[in-house]
Design a protein that fits this description.
Elements (H helix, E strand, L loop, with lengths): L1 E6 L3 H10 L7 E7 L2 H11 L3 E5 L7 H11 L4 E6 L4 H8 L5 E4 L4 H25 L7 H10 L7 H9 L8 E7 L8 H17 L2 E6 L2 E6 L5 H17 L5 E5 L9 H13 L9 E2 L14 H21 L5 H14 L4 H22 L10 H6 L7 H17 L9 H12 L6 H8 L3 H12 L3 H18 L4 H7 L5 H12 L3 H9 L1
Parallel strand pairs: 1-2, 1-3, 3-4, 4-5, 9-10
Antiparallel strand pairs: 6-8, 6-9, 7-8
């Protein structure tokens, strides 16, 4: 199977060409695509494709520059260009660089198939020659590592054995480290090439291992060291410095230790698994075999998690409203534990925290219009949640954000605990207020808080809440509200229970009260 690399700055063209033909039936495989000349050169070096199909006009370095550069490096490289009618003069220049052919856009399927069929015979001769030369091929250390990582056979190919020994890669143990660069949207691979070059020089100098590029990751095959912890620390520092110098961030994961080169694909797989789960680790440096994922409780269903999250959000609001920010950390942590138990994905966790933070800030702003800090930039602040690469970091940010908005609220010197409770009742009588909830917020036992409240007001918490609710209900009934409407608006979901409470406290049923006061 002959390999093909497609180079075009338009995603639609790249995908369209890859899907245009049944490449395999013609003996070809589209091994990858590239969006620009820099990425194309990098992938050329990585794959050594049999054929490159190159767009002649691209932003930055265009196709002509790429073709000229590739031809100097590889006189025998097979290249075909894609050209628009307006680019015919470019196509003529490209012919002078020794390209095989050119295709006009939109690509004619039959024309491309005819060319590929003719090329197969020539490639077959080259493939036979390469096979003869394989035994004496000079491998670079990076090429050896890349080939071994992609090797499906349990044994390193015999053709590699001499090169492995010559390159000094027969070690007592091996460990694969993967580095994922957090590139900006639509960024090319320029920064990653610079990072890789810098790391390769540093790692070779210190004898830490072999730096390589594979798929969308940079990586390191670590060489064993007696100073394991020190080397690990210095290595992570070197990676972070190289990445930061390019104005980027990265995620670093290490695979399991293995005893032979033939097993390094296993080490890579375990590093990939940790990379996929990186959000659920609290590890500022490198996530490895000794790193612990965030605490996982017993699994719960998503419906139960949502119900319990709503309850936590309610306690969060009361904590913010009363200035009890000391409990924010435990409550935000509780939300995370619930989502982990419900097997929420990284994006689901971020979206839920966005909803919680948005709801709380908007509710505070509505309740404290004069004293909550200006929230003009709240959308930008909330959007930052999506950029965090770890759940603990995200949680710390949310806590700081909520403390900022809660800290600006003027609470009229409500330093006395009972006064703060009374204020809550009169402002939130229509919500699901419970003494247990307030006890959590104020960090008291519910029994002790209940005694304090009754000693101060002469009524139990629930009795006082019922009294406030009935006074509000009478006001609503006087205004012409129906009984079920009044019940709902003062916090009763069961209208029969409301009637029972009303009659017990007022000595008269709601309907009799309405008739009496309408006369």
């Amino acid at each position: 199977m002959y390999s093909v690399l497609i180079v075009d700055d338009e995603l639609a063209i790249r995908e369209g060409l890859a899907a245009l033909l049944d490449w395999e039936s013609l003996g070809y495989q589209v091994i990858d695509t590239a969006a620009n000349a820099i990425e194309a050169r990098h992938k050329y070096e990585l794959y050594s494709p049999d054929l490159m199909i190159i767009d002649i006009r691209m932003p930055g370095r265009d196709g002509l520059e790429l073709i000229q550069e590739l031809r100097q490096a590889d006189p025998g490289m097979h290249m075909m260009i894609l050209s628009g009618y307006a680019d015919f003069s470019y196509a003529q220049r490209a012919l002078s660089f020794g390209i095989d052919n050119y295709l006009l856009k939109p690509v004619d399927e039959d024309e491309l198939r005819l060319y590929l069929t003719g090329l197969s015979a020539e490639l077959a001769v080259l493939a036979a020659q390469r096979k003869q030369d394989a035994a004496v091929k000079v491998w670079t250390r990076e090429m050896l590592v890349q080939s071994l990582l992609m090797e499906s056979s349990p044994q390193a190919p015999a053709a590699m054995e001499a090169s492995v020994l010559e390159s000094g890669l027969r070690w007592d143990s091996y460990q694969v480290v993967l580095i994922r660069l957090l590139l900006q949207d639509n960024a090319d691979n320029g920064p990653s090439t610079v990072v890789k070059t810098r790391l390769a020089a540093s790692f070779e100098e210190h004898g830490w291992g072999v730096v390589f590029a594979l798929d969308s990751y940079l990586g390191v095959l670590l060489q064993p060291s007696y100073q394991k912890e020190l080397v690990r620390k210095l290595m992570v520092q070197a990676i972070q410095e190289a990445v930061t110098a390019q104005g980027l961030e990265c995620i670093i994961t290490a695979g399991d230790m293995v005893d032979s080169l033939e097993e390094i694909p296993d080490s890579r797989q375990s590093a990939l698994a940790r990379m996929k789960e990186h959000f659920f680790y609290d590890e500022p440096g490198m996530i490895g075999p000794d790193s612990l994922k965030l605490k996982e409780g017993l699994p719960i269903r998503a419906e139960e998690a949502e119900s319990r999250l709503a309850s936590v959000a309610e306690r969060l609001y009361f904590a913010l409203d009363t200035g009890s920010t000391g409990v924010l950390s435990s409550l935000i942590g509780e939300t995370g534990e619930l989502m982990i138990a419900a097997r929420y994905s990284e994006m689901a966790v971020k979206s839920r925290y966005v909803r919680i933070a948005t709801s709380l800030i908007n509710k505070l702003a509505l309740q404290h219009k004069e004293s909550v800090p200006q929230i003009g930039s709240v959308d930008e602040q909330i959007e930052q949640i999506y950029k965090f690469t770890s759940m603990p970091g995200l949680q710390r940010y949310v806590i700081t954000l909520l403390e900022h908005y809660a800290g600006g609220i003027a609470r009229d010197d409500m330093e006395v605990l009972i006064k703060r409770m009374l204020d809550l009742i009169h402002r939130h009588y229509d919500e699901n207020l419970k003494l247990d909830t307030l006890a959590d917020v104020f960090t008291y036992s519910s029994a002790y808080l209940g005694k304090l409240f009754k000693n101060s007001t002469g009524l139990s918490f629930n009795s006082y809440l019922d009294k406030v609710r009935m006074e509000k209900a009478k006001e609503l009934l006087d205004q012409g509200c129906k009984i079920h409407q009044a019940a709902s608006r003062v916090g009763f979901s069961d209208v029969d229970y409301f009637r029972e409470k009303f009659k017990k406290l007022e000595g008269i049923s709601p309907s009799d009260y309405r008739r009496k006061n309408s006369i």
